[in-house]
Amino acid sequence: MAQSLLAADRTVTIVNNTGYEMVEFYGSNSGTDSWEEDILGKETLPHGASVDIDFDDGTGHCMFDFMAVFEDGDQVKQEGIDVCKTGTFTFE
Predict the structure, then answer these.
(1) Which residue in 40, 54, 46 sits closest to 16, CA to CA?
(2) Most buried of 2, 81, 83, 85, CB within 10 angstroms?
(3) Rounded CA separation 86/92 (Å)
């Protein structure tokens, strides 16, 4: 079982269906106290678009917290996403 968890696919398709452009996206394993870096970097994720993100951070964790920041300044946080089992996550 441990081997299958270590080899688990941690790639999740992040979909933006909010009507607003996503300007920042953070995904940190639930065992940390910080958001790490903005995964999008200088890129943005327009409404209706998606991006594949590999959440394998080398720790073996499957549980991650997500935070998206949108062009209007709104922040949406979702905690406890199992990236080993979730193939697609949609912000709506």
Answers:
(1) 46
(2) 83
(3) 16
The helices-and-strands tally (H runs, E runs) of the chain is 1, 6
Mind listing the pLDDT tens digit for each residue in 22-39? 999 999 999 888 998 999
How far, CA to CA in Å, does 49 sit from each of 34, 55, 63, 91? Answer: 26, 19, 24, 11
Question: 2-91: CATH homologous superfamily?
Answer: Domain of unknown function DUF5300 (2.60.40.2890)
Tell me if residue 3 falls in helix, strand or coil: helix
Question: pLDDT tens digits, residue range 56-68?
Answer: 988 889 999 999 9
22 neighbors 40 (Cβ within 8 angstroms): yes
The domain segmentation of the chain, as residue ranges, is 2-91
pLDDT at 2: 44
- Does the structure show a pLDDT above 90 at 7? no
